[in-house]
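Re: weekly structure request thread

Next one in the queue (140 aa):
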Amino acid sequence: METEAKSDAKVGAETTARPETTARPETTARPETTGGLHPTLQADSLIDLYRRTLAVWGEQAQYDQSIEECAELSVALLHYRRAKGSRQAVIDEMADVILMMGQLRWMFGPQEVDLAVERKRAKLERLLRKTTGSDTSEDV
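Done, posted below.
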């Protein structure tokens, strides 16, 4: 309950929003891998790491850790958007989430997850075409 009170107090406080036109660093080429995962997350060395973490902490703890890391990323993004957090904090939390998503991908089955990612990507492509009225896409 104390956390809720603190959270409510912050909501009412005046904050400085990060401008929409904030310059973003140039993007580098994204890895061309199934599901858009960084090649490191598909490396055999990580499978051993995933097995060991599962053996030490168990399946439920990995689900809980994934939830926690996603929540921490949410908070870091909210702070960044309000100019109360750093870009590096967001990147660090993203790294934690990416590692946990790699673990969950392995736990739930990479092929099934990759198929779901492809379905979602195709849906986004359709939405973009519909929204922009454009007939050009990578699918055509």
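The helical segments are 2-12, 44-57, 59-81, 87-108, 110-132. Residues 1-35 have pLDDT under 50 and may be disordered.
Next request, please.
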